[in-house]
Amino acid sequence: GNETFVGGTTTTAADAETAGHMDVLHGIVNFTGWLGIGRQNGTSVTAPQGLVSTFSLHDGEVTCLDLSLGYAEVPNTIYTMRPELNVYGGVLRVRNDVRLDHTYSWGRFNVNGGTFIAQKFRNSNYYPGSHVEINVSNGGEFRTTEHLALAHHSTAEHPSYARVNVTDGGVLSLKTMYKSSEYAAADVELHFNGGILRSYQSAYEDQIFPDEKIFVGEKGMTVDVSNATYWGLKINAPIVATSGTGGIAVVNDTDSANRWVCFNGGVEVPGGLTVENACVLFAKDVKAAVTVRDDVSTVRATGDVTVDALTFEGNEALLDCAMSGAADAAGV
Predict the structure, then answer these.
(1) Whole-number Å distance between alpha carbons of 55 and 111
(2) Whole-angstrom distance, CA of residue 55 vs CA of residue 213
(3) How far is C-alpha 141 from the geometric centre of its chain's CA atoms?
(4) Nearest to 211 by CA among 186, 175, 237
(5) Closest C-alpha to 294, from 311, 306, 309, 272
(6) Residue 114's closest CA among 25, 199, 175?
């Protein structure tokens, strides 16, 4: 199909390659094929310091069939591209896949307002060793409607890396997120500091999050299960604090009581865990104070759980909250 490149290969001369830039200020732009940012855009010879080609959406609507950052088809060449995609407003929609696929490439997504939507997102899908950073802030939303596969292919020689930062009202909205378990060398980090994790039509059998830690900063983290149609959200990674006293709020903004989140990896945050209009399931230790609000919220312990303090705020119906398994809930 048709391909549009922003930054590519234009020379073989030493230190002579150039970056490309494209800005969409408003209106509607439709790419009928691939949109490639920084495709084979510089090598250790033609751009030894690395080039940052950019595509930026300020307002309006952009649609493409597929999107690539830093893609290259020559696996043994040392490419140095550092492409960036910026969304400051409007909607950027990828109908199929997003890929970052080269051993030495580093791609960055900045969603600082506006919405980025893709069906699938993969870094290191074919070639190991690519790096990706996803930054979501200022009310922006980064959404995948099928899966977000981070550090999908990694080796000891070329480990892949992914870091997701969700801050200051930014929203990470997804159905499934994973790191392939066969690639132990992969490094995945998730950081929330005033950001929101939103379940997007999740399904019970889906694995949500890899076996890595989720870090919560001083501004805390919100887990929104309002859109978790029929089922809920299962988090298999431990959630720990980085600094400050940030906590976790589980919210459900619908009238349905059939919304839940399962903290399979456990929770350890000084700011505590607050549950509003949802059901929370614990499968491992919860070393935090837990506050349950309003009479439709429920907390259940499915394994050995230590809760620093359990507080009910609302009417007496909250006392019907079921606790099973070995639980030490001081302060009830």
Answers:
(1) 12
(2) 31
(3) 10
(4) 237
(5) 311
(6) 25
End-to-end alpha carbon distance in the chain:
63
Q: Are 54 and 84 in contact (CB under 8 A)?
A: yes
Cα–Cα dist 94/273, whole Å: 35
| Alpha-carbon span 66 to 121, nearest angstrom | 10
CA dist., res. 13 & res. 267, Å (int): 54
Tell me the two tokens of residue 132.
């990706």
> Which amino acid is it at 29?
V
pLDDT band at 319 (very low <50, low <70, confident <90, very high): very low
Is pLDDT at 47 greater than 80 in this prediction?
yes
In Å, how far from its chain's centre is CA 182?
20
- Check if the beta carbon of residue 88 is closer than 8 Å to that of residue 118: no
DSSP three-state, residue 316: helix
Q: What pLDDT is recorded for position 134?
A: 95
DSSP per-residue string spanning 34-68: EEEESTT--BTTT-TT----EEEE-SSEEEEEEEE
| Span 179-188, pLDDT tens digits | 554 555 567 8
pTM recorded for the entire structure: 0.89
C-beta pairs of 267-271 under 8 Å, 24+ apart in sequence: 267/238, 267/239, 268/238, 268/239, 268/240, 268/241, 269/216, 269/220, 269/239, 269/240, 269/241, 270/241, 270/244, 270/245, 270/246, 271/216, 271/220, 271/241, 271/244, 271/245, 271/246, 271/247
Residues sharing a CB contact under 8 Å with residue 205, sequence separation 6 or more, in sequence order: none
C-alpha 81/C-alpha 69 separation (Å) is: 9
